Amino acid sequence: MTPADLLIVNAAEVVTCAGFSEAPARGADQSVVRIVRDGAVAIADGRILAVGASDRLRREHHVGEDQIIDAAGGIVLPGFVDCHAHLVFAGDRAVEWEQRMQGKPYLEILREGGGILSTVKKTRASAIGALVTGAVRWATACMEHGTTTLEAKSGYCLNREGELRLLDVARTVQSELPLSIVSTFLGAHVVPPEFKHDRAGYLELLDALMVEIREQQLARFVDVFCEKEAFTLDETERLLIRAKSLGFGLKLHAEQFSSSGAAALGARLGAVSVDHLEHVDDAGIAALAQAPRPPVGVLLPGVPFHLAQSDHAPARRLIDAGVPLAIATDFNPGSSFTPSIPMCIALACRTLKMTASEAVVASTINAAHALGLGAEIGSLEPGKRADVIVCDVPDHRWLGYAFGSNPVRAVVVGGERVFD
After folding, report:
1. Is residue 18 within 8 Å of 357, Cβ to Cβ?
2. If I label 39, which of 26, 100, 230, 279 is the partner at 20 to 30 A Cα–Cα?
3. What whole-number distance in Å separates Cα of residue 50 and Cα of residue 181?
């Protein structure tokens, strides 16, 4: 028997989210969390060795007291996977947020040069050292809230040198912190001011940039913001087909402010995820559900909460149709300024009408699939990477029931204690 080098014991619940490594949970399975009560997790060489009853694992694996994490009646679950986040940026948009609270529409602010473009201006002017410092700060905050794998999108420079710099910053964060960073190229965030009257020229620049990014292995995915004031459905299709030909995985910002057809496009092109979906229509839901391997619908409840919007993604209709759902923070300085997956779980239960179990699955194994990593992370099963968190609550439902505080007490990434 392989000896353990770390034991997590005395958990009221070990929430495994097991059984969905090959494909995400969908339909009735969206709520299947598979709990081991009075449980424990044994870890060896950075991998999950065993999951089972606490007394049994303690008998089978004799380790020193310094190799034991006592869950003390809390819950143990897979590390959260934040599969939609904009990590690297400069400045803030507090003034614009206040305008939004007073009723000014987001797209109007964007047309006036605010929104994404205001962050682009600040980020372009920022030194790389300041960008690294900020990204490390926010990635650490994500980790303290239980995130062990974090997506990092570019998209706040929108020129060749700047976009490469943002992806390089994400790589630096990966080297400085123990959590895993998955980078996504979002050069197609909006069209920058210097290309306002030359959209074709900017699309050509994005084509060339994708080649360069692929050669340097700076990003795993390409994302496009398909929306009014951003990119049309035809432009989105062109960019994603090119990205797919280069070997990138595909993601879309889809149906956030209007029903554009982006969800159906994502299903047709084999995207790994379609994100937002606040305005997805019946045809879009059907296209997602009927795809041979449906994209994960990544819902971002922090956005309408932060912007005081009344439109929410139709989670219940999506689940009933058989579309697998994930939850992420959409951490960014404009529309969702939170690093907390626990807060987004609480919001999902209230605003999306998801159960706590559905939200836990959505923020672990399904979120892992939204990054193409379901076989490696997202559940507590022997052989998977030992990304594990301990939450100081007696029942996984408390992750939805409680809100506004951080329940995470201990974080293990790749078998190494990060916080305890």
Report:
1. no
2. 26
3. 26
187, two tokens: 């050069």
Which domains does the chain carry?
A: 6-78+379-419 (2.30.40.10), 81-369 (3.20.20.140)
DSSP state of 231: B
Q: Output the six-digit token pair for 170.
A: 């994400």
Structure tokens belonging to residue 339: 């690093």
Token digits of residue 347:
């919001």
Give me the average pLDDT of each 10-residue run along the chain (420 residues). Answer: 91 98 98 98 98 96 94 98 98 92 82 87 97 98 98 98 98 97 98 96 98 98 95 98 98 96 98 98 98 97 94 98 98 96 98 98 99 98 98 98 97 94
128-135 LR contacts (CB < 8 Å, sep 24+) = 128/165, 128/168, 128/169, 130/90, 131/88, 131/89, 131/90, 131/165, 131/166, 131/169, 132/169, 132/172, 132/173, 132/176, 134/88, 134/89, 134/90, 135/87, 135/88, 135/169, 135/170, 135/172, 135/173
pTM of the model: 0.97
Q: What residues contact 336, with CB distance under 8 A and at least 6 apart?
A: 300, 302, 303, 305, 306, 329, 330
Helix, strand counts (H, E) of the chain: 16, 16
